[in-house]
Structures are given as structure tokens and as C-alpha cells.
Amino acid sequence: MKGTCVYLLRSLNEPSHHYIGRTEDLKRRLAEHNRGAVGHTRKYRPWKVVVAVYFEDPRKAAAFER
Description:
The chain is 27% helix and 35% strand. The chain contains two helices and three strands. The chain has a three-stranded antiparallel beta sheet with strand order 2-1-3. 12% of the residues are buried.
């Protein structure tokens, strides 16, 4: 999909841990989370996408993420 994506991840090892983020390439970003490249999510990997919402307007995506 095209646009800016706001996504919710859930840890597979610690299902009570979630992470909300924003990206234009969800597949690449999920791979970064799962290989430990993101400090906030490194400890609870692996992650899976629970929800992904796409926006044409990046400002609306940023507002939704907040």
C-alpha cells in the first residue's frame, strides 16, 4: 500500500507489550524491529503487526499516531 502507515505491534514472547509506530514501508520497518535495530523494541522481539492503518496525508498519520 502507498502512504504513511500507523501500526501497532505486539511482542510474540511478551504479549502484554505493544509498540505504536509510523512508517512508509511497513515490511522494512517490521524487519528492523525484529532484528533489534530499534532500541525501544529490541528487548521484546520478535514482533507481529496487530493493526496497520494507512493515510494519504502524512500529517493525518502523525496526528493519529499521537
